[in-house]
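Journal club side-thread
Mid-discussion, someone asked how the predicted structure for our own chain would compare to the paper's figures. Pasting it here so we can look after the session.
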Amino acid sequence: MSDQKGDLRHLETLDRDLDRYSNLEVATAYVSRPMVGTGIALVFVVLAGIAAMLFLDQSNNSVIVVIAACLGAYMALNIGANDVANNMGPAVGANALTMGGAIAIAVIFESAGALLAGGDVVSTIAKGIIAPESMGTAPVFIWAMMAALLSAALWVNLATWIGAPVSTTHSVVGGVMGAGIAAAGFGAVNWSTMSGIAASWVISPVLGGAIAAGFLWLIKSRIVYRDDKIASARVWVPILVGIMAGTFTAYLALKGLNKVFDISMLAALLIGTATGVVIWAVMIPVIRKQSEGLENRNKSLKVLFGIPLVVSAALLSFAHGANDVANAVGPLAAIVHASESGDFLGAVSIPAWVMVIGAFGISFGLFFFGPQLIRMGGGQVTKLNPMRAYCVALSAAITVIVASWLGLPVSSTHIAVGGVFGVGFFREWDAERRIRKARIAMPERTKFAPEERRRRKLVRRSHFMTIIAAWIITVPAAALLSGGLFLLINAAVG
């Protein structure tokens, strides 16, 4: 009997020891988890350098290109980590996508956008901001691009570490401009191109907000405020999905198919229109089946907007990859071209391996470092539901696609935030309009004091000032950092 009791005590002791080991293993895994992403990121940076060595002929500048490839990979990782919340934050915040689903969609469509449609913006970053002829020699041009790439990567990394909402596009454009000024003075900057880029930075968030507000007005007027909401949704939701599909297809035809054979704008629009009509027809029975048994209230509409929101998030990821891959590989493409040919004045040819580094870097960055930012996105500025999130994602996608088509490196961060603000301000205006109508019908209705009305604003004004401050400081900060790095590099090698 004593042996049995001894065995029981032995088992209890063993269980306690095993619990301690289990707790230690869990704690170790939790502490080391952040290091996994960092370790894989470092491996990717090294592999990017090795890829550059393999694809380059042995030349005097091969070491420079390898270093530039590592910096380009580092920048691409930062872009993926920072900007993924712009694409997937609204969808995850509105509970239309799980975190795993959002990451999977973002990885696929970011890579596709970068590889299929990223060339035009890359060319603008590489040669459009500064005049290469002002640099004098190819080495000076290479050092300037190197300084721009390093400064942008450092600034974005620093901003991410301290939690500042900066734009990766602003960072790299400011870096290129600052290095150009340090190398050859203010005359090196192509101020006409810079003025166009600066104008697009102002116009694009406003345009994104206006498009988002327009779509939200359409949804409210045609679906939400109708007596039979479900019947109206059966008519309009397939139309909205068709618009998204048509827009995406037309852009893909212009950017993807154009690399295989010449395709005109009219032909691309016709292809997009045909695709939109087909998708509209396909979605009619799908939405009809989804709407069966739903109650005639606003909460039921969230179910019907699940598919449109997922499609719009995927479209935005594609557009973001097409536009923002330039931030990582634009200076890298210029360095590779100048190193291989010795010509830094002609048009920049973009090697496929350079685009692959940018595409995979963005994907790795969002996969390992994006979830935390996704959780933060979509709910800080104003409350989003699937309908509002759909408007934000679609407007941002359309705006970024148009900008990428025109070759303008716009900020996807500010476009997405502009869409969120557009939705929020429209809701404020619509709420005020309905309150005024209610007061006319019911004069005895309680009136709120000005302080209470300000508290009830649907858009958080503090975020607006934060974004504006980040917008103002990023370009000059990146320019100053890039100029200083160029002077250091030039002094070290010269």
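Post-session note: The chain has a mean pLDDT of 76.
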